[in-house]
Amino acid sequence: METPSPTICKKTSRRNHTKSRSGCSDCKRRRVKCDEAWPACSHCARRKVSCSLTRAKPLSLEGSPSSDLSHSPNRRHVRSVFEAILMANYSPKSDYGDAVMPYDTPKFELSRLSDTNFSSLSNSRDQELMHHFCTLTVHSMSTRSDVLHIWRTVIPQSCYENDFVLHGILALSAAHKAYLLSGNRQLYLNLSDYHFNIGSETFRSQLSDEDERKRNQKPLFLFGGVVIIHILTSTLRTHNSETDAIENLVRLARAIKGFRVIIFSCLSWRAMTDLAALDSGSRPFTSKELAFQTKDVPPGPENFYEKATLGLKDIVNTLAACGVFSEVGMVLRWLYFLDADILSDIETLQPPALLLVAYFAVILASMEKTVWYLNGWGDAIIRQVDQLLEEDSKERSMFAWAKQQISRRIP
């Protein structure tokens, strides 16, 4: 009886292959070869799952700006705008653009590309700013739940389709971190200026186009608010300098006036019902409503300064009635209703106008503890007015009260 011969097994050699430890996390988990394609490997793209390589690819600002910026997700228009920023060409393209942004924003200079701190900007840095916005900045923007809903939900949703709104909230988030982290203030101020300049380029161009204004009413309104807050953060850049406070206040007033002109002349509230809480009560009166309200009403003060003084009194009464629910818009609206002649007097540093501004600074200072981007405004204005008023002037004696209120504040 023959015994079966044992099966001879031939040893096969393994196919040579290169090993890599930089594949995506999903391929590592499934133990399959990752082709490391970017922004998503072929396996993740085929299975329609999120690929970790999308988040891992850095956005470098060193070397050639066109190599990385042109391929980064959510940065479709960054390359052309980036080149425009390097050219530092920010002349207004229309009356509307100039109305909201009546001054040159800080430029993103070519020399910053070699800055070791700024070269760390990447997609992960943007994610850091977005996380900070959603977890901290949002809650610092208001005490009202309806307004917080807009900052927490409506505005981030607008970023999905509008890159310039995304840049706007990243700029706002970076400015907030600069306020909180004084040790890294310059880094985050650079990031804030970088994102703001990119967003403002698209903002200006869309304001100059009638079709774009009609099509993008909501994002234009949202970024207009970012412009105003960006001006308010100027004290972080000037270190509360008493030489720029009045000039910054005039810029702020012109931006607010221009912004609201655009709201009433270009934008339709019917298309922005979910943003109504941001501008509650700002609807212009109809002719019938105006006639009814002015009927049998004695004429008001003819003097512009008297009107402005009564406006300050109304603000104080409103803030006292609202208490902890006071909003910064209640204070800034005074700048919108400020007469053009008074604004001109403020710009030319006339003593009566400076006294009016000093009293307004006391109101601003009272809100600094709850509104972070107002920090330093009251002190800076009072210091500059103190330097400008003559010792023997009648305004000096009335200014003493405002100066005393600022010095009495609990730090």
UniProtKB/TrEMBL annotation:
Keyword flag Transmembrane helix: yes
Keywords: Membrane, Nucleus, Transmembrane, Transmembrane helix
SMART domains from the UniProt entry: GAL4 (SM00066)
A GO MF term: zinc ion binding
UniProt region (Disordered), positions on chain: 1-22
Positions with biased composition (Basic residues): 11-20
Domain (Zn(2)-C6 fungal-type): residue spans on this chain: 23-53
Presence of keyword Membrane: yes
One Pfam family named in its UniProt record: Fungal_trans_2
TM annotation in the entry: 315-337, 349-367
PANTHER family cross-referenced by the UniProt entry: STEROL UPTAKE CONTROL PROTEIN 2
Protein name stated in the entry: C6 zinc finger domain-containing protein
